Amino acid sequence: MRDQALFDKIDLHLIRVLHTVLTDRSVSRAAIRLGMYQPAVSAALKRLRELAGDPLLVRSGAGMVPTDAALRMIEPAASILRSAEVLFSDARAFDPQTATNTFRIAASDYLDPLFLPMLVAQVKSQAPLCRIEIHPLSPDSNYHAQLSLGNVDLVIGNWLKPPEDLHMARLFGDEIVSLVNADHPAVRRGWDAGTWLAAEHIAPTPMHPGARGIIDQMLDALKVQRNITARCAHFSLIPDMVASSLLVLTTGRQYCERFTTRLPVKILECPVAFPRLMYYQLWHERTHASSSARWLRERIKSVAASLRPVPGAAASTTGFQ
């Protein structure tokens, strides 16, 4: 009976106060985020402490820190709030003009650099009250778990073999080329497979220790290996590194084309026969039938279809599927 009596005293607003106070680690900052007066947040925190039988937030030096019990409550509280958001937003048809959803997308920066800015602009234009969060696909990210827990709504990236346990839609395909400094010897002399493999290559930092990037997975299938002498976790910075060195970046033509007018770089055909680089959006069964998630997936598909090579690029080399 006691557990039921405690449960009856908990409402969604109290859960929101709990999560905000514990993540902000400050009653005053939480009050600003919640649009409440500070005494009201303090009163709610007092109720939460009584319900939990724990101080939840304690002073440490000049700031506040959650107790061990409070730390264990952060993720369950977030999960309850996410579930409530889905429950009430998807119980009716999604109306982008009035919806207040938060869309969470995990994406690699190997994409066309115009893709994510255009996507954010389209979402904010069509759903002005919605929030959008772009999360990285970093070495410490487990996108399977993030999708299943609801921490992200979908993942965008390229895979040689997309995971079969997730829903998938192909966004576009791109020809694999190499980007080099305009003064690179290969610009004048050309290259064959041997000289290309021996050249100094730059590649993204692996997603996790021992992981192989998609280009190197393709090379593994051909039983050859390139000479990687530099790695960078920030893919968007690599073209500038190529422009000031003899490093070779190998990726999609459309990505490379975005830098040819800004940097002293050239695009060269690869002397190795690569298949096309394919980009996908992946999502979990949890959001498959969600009206808001379907709307977001359509926006992503629309932006991908609207992208075209920059003027001067060969139209036949980059095709959207």
List the helices and strands and how they pair.
Layout: H1 2-8, H2 12-24, H3 27-34, H4 38-52, E1 57-60, E2 63-66, H5 68-89, E3 102-107, H6 115-126, E4 131-136, H7 143-149, E5 154-158, E6 167-174, E7 176-181, H8 185-189, H9 193-198, E8 200-204, H10 214-221, E9 227-232, H11 238-243, E10 248-252, H12 253-257, E11 265-269, E12 277-283, H13 291-306, E13 318-319
Helix pairs in contact: 2-3, 2-4, 2-5, 3-4, 6-13
Give an overview of the whole structure:
The protein is an alpha/beta fold and 321 residues long. It has three domains: 2-82, Arc Repressor Mutant, subunit A; 102-170 and 278-310, Periplasmic binding protein-like II (D-Maltodextrin-Binding Protein, domain 2, 3-Layer(aba) Sandwich); 176-275, 3-Layer(aba) Sandwich (D-Maltodextrin-Binding Protein, domain 2). Helix content is 40%, strand content 21%. It has 13 helices and 13 strands. The chain has helices spanning 2-8, 12-24, 27-34, 38-52, 68-89, 115-126, 143-149, 185-189, 193-198, 214-221, 238-243, 253-257, 291-306, and strands spanning 57-60, 63-66, 102-107, 131-136, 154-158, 167-174, 176-181, 200-204, 227-232, 248-252, 265-269, 277-283, 318-319. A six-stranded mixed β-sheet has the order 4-3-5-12-6-13, with helices on one face. A five-stranded mixed β-sheet has the order 9-8-10-7-11. The chain has a two-stranded antiparallel ribbon with strand order 1-2. Helix 2 crosses helix 4 (38-52) and helix 6 (115-126) packs across helix 13.
